[in-house]
Amino acid sequence: MSAIPAETFTSDDVLARLRSVLHETFEIDPAKVTPEANLFTDLELDSIDAIDLAIQVQDMTGTRIKPEDFKSVRTVGDVVATVQTLLTR
What we know:
Elements: H1 11-26, H2 47-61, H3 67-70, H4 76-87
Helix pairs in contact: 1-2, 1-4
């Protein structure tokens, strides 16, 4: 997966990419991937899955993620916000 160009991304673009990643990697129905969806209770990811998702986000942004950048991520919306922050660094 190629990195998102920082100058052209929107939160909708990031959300669409996350829907694709979560579907391809974890077989999650894209319709369930909403900004409000909790990664652990709604999408049933576990801690190992969260690490895999962080790696996917690294690939998406082309930026190395520090553990503290992903520590407070709980919802899909949190992931979108983290990606946007990483892309603007």
